[in-house]
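Input/output pair, single chain:
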Amino acid sequence: MKKLIALFAVSAMASTSAMSAIALSGAASVSYDDNGSKPSATSYDADLLVTGTAGTTTVTVGADVDGASFATTSAAMTTTIGPVTVTADMHDEVSADALGTNTAVASGTNATGTAGEQIFESSDTGVTISLDAPIGDATVGVDNSGNVTITGTWSGITMSHTSKSAGDTTTAAGSIAGMDVSVTNKAGDTTWSLGTTVSGVALTLASSKKVTATFGLAGNTMVVSSNPAVTAAVQKDGNSAGTGTNGYGTRLVASAKSYSTVAISRSLTSGATLAATYSTSDDSLTLKASVAF
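Output:
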């Protein structure tokens, strides 16, 4: 009997030790939107993230749990072998519109698809191998598609360059004279953002012409945003292999007028956060209560 008790104690200790390397986090929220002149609506969101660690290997699994069934949103494993880091993305996300069909492509209409959404499904699982190279602070990585990425930080500026058949992507980000600057060039198309603080107000300006101003301190803030008008874009027909000029294709986008939003957020002593957002696009007010753990 004593041997059985001892064996049970050792087993319990091993289980406790294994469980101590597993971390659970998540977030949940409920939102009420009066939708302006349209009928009001209530929506819910709940997500979980499980992180397991064993030595230099980490596995993360994310899930959306507010639907009718448990839906996986991410699954990845990262391990380090000396100067080499191997990352495996094991979750194939739904890249195309869930309601999109080939009929929509043939008819040349948006059908039930979401504006700007990818039409054909593509696989985004893969493995990336990165090597800390003795070139300043550079890291060289290559994935199973043959894309090569070089990243590093020089003189306070973080830079990344990815070479791939669909077009090279180069990014640079850093703080210059108190201003946060980020620039991205993808296949010849450049986007940028600038961020700074003036008299306690955090200002952000992006190349999309969106301007954001944040007032207050953490836990009690007001964010005012000016969102630019949306230019109409025609549908681009792709193919299931994504090998054509338009890749997997994108649905048409209708034009939209510019609008502004004002969001007030307050952290409560209960641990939850209450936010109220007003939008001039449809004269709507949204109330949202959320919690993260």
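The radius of gyration is 24 Å. Residues 1-17, 99-112 have pLDDT under 50 and may be disordered.
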